[in-house]
TrEMBL record:
<dbReference type="GO" id="GO:0005829">
    <property type="term" value="C:cytosol"/>
</dbReference>
<keyword id="KW-0067">ATP-binding</keyword>
<keyword id="KW-0378">Hydrolase</keyword>
<dbReference type="InterPro" id="IPR011545">
    <property type="entry name" value="DEAD/DEAH_box_helicase_dom"/>
</dbReference>
<feature type="domain" description="Helicase C-terminal">
    <location>
        <begin position="218"/>
        <end position="383"/>
    </location>
</feature>
<dbReference type="GO" id="GO:0016787">
    <property type="term" value="F:hydrolase activity"/>
</dbReference>
<dbReference type="InterPro" id="IPR044742">
    <property type="entry name" value="DEAD/DEAH_RhlB"/>
</dbReference>
<feature type="domain" description="DEAD-box RNA helicase Q">
    <location>
        <begin position="1"/>
        <end position="29"/>
    </location>
</feature>
<dbReference type="GO" id="GO:0005524">
    <property type="term" value="F:ATP binding"/>
</dbReference>
<dbReference type="GO" id="GO:0042255">
    <property type="term" value="P:ribosome assembly"/>
</dbReference>
<dbReference type="GO" id="GO:0009266">
    <property type="term" value="P:response to temperature stimulus"/>
</dbReference>
<keyword id="KW-0963">Cytoplasm</keyword>
<feature type="short sequence motif" description="Q motif">
    <location>
        <begin position="1"/>
        <end position="29"/>
    </location>
</feature>
<keyword id="KW-0547">Nucleotide-binding</keyword>
<dbReference type="GO" id="GO:0003724">
    <property type="term" value="F:RNA helicase activity"/>
</dbReference>
<dbReference type="InterPro" id="IPR001650">
    <property type="entry name" value="Helicase_C-like"/>
</dbReference>
<dbReference type="Pfam" id="PF00271">
    <property type="entry name" value="Helicase_C"/>
</dbReference>
Length: 444
């Protein structure tokens, strides 16, 4: 299968050729014809599956072929993203795909001055990428009208709800024209997401390109049990032993990020951190420097790192396990992208055993444990398995299993056999409900 056989127009094919995309990924193979046919979509796709191109390519084609010229202070398509970083990243991809098309694109998000954004919107933009809060601000200040909107995309919808945006989404929903195409993408599908889908989508085609809640099997994952207080020391030890070149590290809290960065910098290690307390410009600079390999270790919280697309990232380290098990899937989705192989190592202390158990249950696998000599924990991490059992009694440590692996492949050659699960579309009923959950806002 090629992009041409999916019915994409020549200017898009030319852009894809420049980017080195040769074969559509499974989510692209299913989403592109459905979106071109005008269908609403409910797509379960892991990060790294190529979902951005899956919605952006047909969207760009429809906007080129159909509809009136964009009016002042209007947008013809809106892509909602949970974080500023993801908005920037999605916008960068959209702009690349649109390079030979006569369409305008722009991204708006909070944490930066609203005035330049208002100025930019005066002439209208064909595709607007936005985070929910800033979109509402712009709408309320009359800088943006949505009556011309043809298509709405909800990207990483699960994450938007996790971040407490359900109220904002309900408000945005009221601002939208009734007649429109809606595409909903989510790595994981909770009941809340299905409620949201039932409210926002019209007879959607439901596609799923990987088993629900299962992490990419191109990522080799294991756990190193350790006492909490020795985690920084173990991290440095593993880094030196494994000669790690570039690592994205996840810590649970903003303080945790700062403490680890301080420790690493104190040892002369080239490290930087990103979290929600840092100004947007600082976060972006750290990320750009990491992408340019000018920073070796980037330590991040989940919110700051959400959706980051860093090509060929070989290793993700969970310095702390995430509190929400689904974040584990998002975190390790930073590696093993687009058919590459990657590694994800989690440093786990006894306090985190319930989180480990929740992750194993969600991903339906027992993570291999590898004891590091001289770092065996005094506080034993009880055994766990994919059934959610935490075995309290001491047991002999399990023999490490061989998993994943294989050589590194280049981006641009999408491998769709074995690396990603079945590409069969599965049509699932979507519950229609009068209103979706606008329950209490969760804290960020
Ligand atoms: P996404 O899941 O949209 O974040 O995409 C993950 C990565 O895969 C990005 O770096 C894309 O540039 C890349 N990618 C997307 N589609 C393809 C394709 N058909 N062939 C090769 N790489 C792709």
């Amino acid at each position: 299968m090629t992009f041409a056989t999916l019915g994409l127009i020549e200017p898009l094919l030319r852009a894809l050729e420049t980017l080195g995309y040769q074969t559509p990924t499974p989510v692209q193979a299913q989403a592109i014809p459905a979106v071109l046919a005008g269908r609403d979509l409910m797509a379960a796709a892991q990060t790294g599956t190529g979902k951005t191109a899956g919605f952006a390519l047909p969207l760009l084609q429809l906007l080129t072929m159909e509809g009136p010229k964009v009016a002042a202070n209007s947008a013809r398509a809106l892509i909602l993203c949970p974080t500023r970083e993801l908005a920037e990243q999605v916008h960068a991809s959209v702009a690349e795909y649109a390079q030979h098309l006569p369409l305008t694109t722009y991204a708006v998000y909070g944490g930066v001055s609203i005035n330049p954004q208002m100025m930019k919107l005066r002439k209208g933009v064909d595709i607007l990428v936005a985070t929910p809060g800033r979109l509402i601000d712009l709408f309320r200040q009359n800088a943006l009208k949505l009556n011309q909107l043809q298509t709405l995309v909800l990207d990483e919808a699960d994450r938007m709800l996790d971040l407490g945006f359900s109220e904002e989404l309900a408000n945005i929903y009221r601002m939208l024209p009734k007649k429109r195409q809606t595409l909903l993408f989510s790595a994981t599908f909770s009941d809340d997401i299905r409620l949201l889908a039932g409210q926002m989508l019209n007879d959607p085609l439901s596609i799923e390109v990987s088993p629900r809640n299962v992490a990419a099997n191109t990522v080799k994952q294991w756990v190193v049990p350790v006492d909490k207080k020795r985690k920084p020391e173990l991290f440095v030890h593993l880094m030196r032993k494994g000669r790690w070149k570039q690592v994205l590290v996840f810590a649970k809290t903003r303080n945790g990020v700062d403490a680890l960065v301080d420790k690493l910098q104190g040892l002369g290690i080239n490290a930087d951190g990103i979290h929600g307390d840092k100004p947007q410009a600082t976060r972006q600079r750290a990320l750009d420097r990491f992408k340019a390999s000018e920073v070796q270790i980037l330590v991040a919280t989940d919110v700051a790192a959400r959706g980051l697309d860093i090509e060929d990232l070989p290793l993700v380290v969970n310095f702390d396990l995430p509190i929400v098990a689904e974040d584990y899937i998002h975190r390790i989705g930073r590696t093993g992208r687009a058919g590459n192989t990657g590694e994800a190592i989690s440093l786990v202390c006894a306090d985190e055993v319930n989180m480990l158990s929740a992750i194993e249950m969600l991903t339906r696998q027992t993570l291999t444990r590898k004891m590091e000599p001289d770092f065996e924990p005094e506080h034993r991490v009880p055994d766990t398995d994919a059934s959610g059992q935490v075995v309290k009694k001491p047991k002999k440590p399990k023999k490490p299993k061989a998993s994943g692996g294989g050589g590194k492949r280049n981006l641009g050659k999408w491998v769709d056999s074995g690396d990603v699960a079945p590409a069969e579309p599965s049509i699932k009923p979507v519950r229609k409900v009068p209103v979706f959950n606008t329950g209490p806002r969760k804290k960020k």
